[in-house]
Write a structure and sequence with these properties.
This protein is an alpha+beta fold. It is 43% helix and 17% strand. It has a five-stranded antiparallel sheet with strand order 1-5-4-3-2.
Length: 189
C-alpha cells in the first residue's frame, strides 16, 4: 500500500502542476509541431479553461485517493462494542466447550484462563484487547478487558469435572474444568 500511495501522490502532484501551468504555452511547446499550420489548429480559450479544470479535478481526486491509501495503512484499535462482542464470543466459546485444562505455567497474577480468553480476543488490529486478572476468590476469577469507552468484566467460575482424581500438586493440575462465564459491560467489582 505504501507504493500505491506514493505513486498516487506523485501522479497527483504532476496533474496539479500541469493544471496550474499555462495551458497555451504547453500546447505550443508540445502539440503545435504536429500541425502544418499551428495557429489555425490552436484550441480556443474555453478549451484551455476546460483542460485546466479537468487537470485540477483529476489531480485533486488522485490526491484524495493517495490520502485514502496512506490512511488505510494506519491501524486503529477496536471500539467498545467490538471489544464487548469479542469478550462475549470468547465467554460463549469457553462455556460451551466440553471442559478445559488450566493453562500450564499460569502465574498467580496471570490467572488460569487468561490465555484462553486472550486467544479469542485477537483480531486484525495490532492493539488487541487483553484480559488482565483483577481478582480471584475460590473458584471465581475476574478479568478486566480494557475498551475505549470503559472496561468490560468477565467472571470465570471453574469447577473440576466430577470423577477426577485430586492433583498431586497445584502446579501439575491435569483436571478438566467446566467453566461458567458472566460478562458485564462495566468495571469488575
Amino acid at each position: 500500500m505504501i507504493g500505491l500511495g506514493g505513486f498516487l501522490a506523485l501522479l497527483a502532484l504532476v496533474l496539479l502542476l500541469m493544471g496550474l501551468s499555462d495551458q497555451r504555452r504547453m500546447w505550443w511547446r508540445f502539440q503545435a509541431r504536429r500541425f502544418r499550420d499551428p495557429a489555425a489548429n490552436e484550441p480556443s480559450d474555453s478549451a484551455y479553461r476546460g483542460q485546466r479544470i479537468l487537470l485540477l479535478c483529476v489531480g485533486a481526486a488522485t490526491a484524495g485517493a493517495s490520502v485514502y491509501a496512506f490512511s488505510s495503512m494506519m491501524e486503529f484499535g477496536p471500539d467498545h462494542d467490538d471489544v464487548l462482542e469479542r469478550v462475549r464470543s470468547a465467554a460463549d466459546e469457553l462455556e460451551n466447550n466440553n471442559g478445559q485444562y488450566k493453562f500450564p505455567g499460569a502465574g498467580e497474577n496471570d490467572g488460569s484462563w487468561a490465555e484462553y480468553i486472550n486467544s479469542d480476543l485477537r483480531g486484525p488490529e495490532a492493539d488487541d484487547p487483553i484480559a488482565v486478572l483483577v481478582s480471584r476468590s475460590g473458584d471465581v476469577e475476574r478479568y478486566r478487558v480494557a475498551a475505549p469507552d470503559g472496561d468490560v468484566c468477565i467472571a470465570m467460575t471453574a469447577r473440576p469435572r466430577a470423577g477426577q482424581p485430586e492433583p498431586l500438586s497445584e502446579d501439575l493440575d491435569a483436571r478438566v474444568y467446566i467453566l461458567k462465564t458472566q460478562v458485564a459491560d462495566r468495571a469488575c467489582e
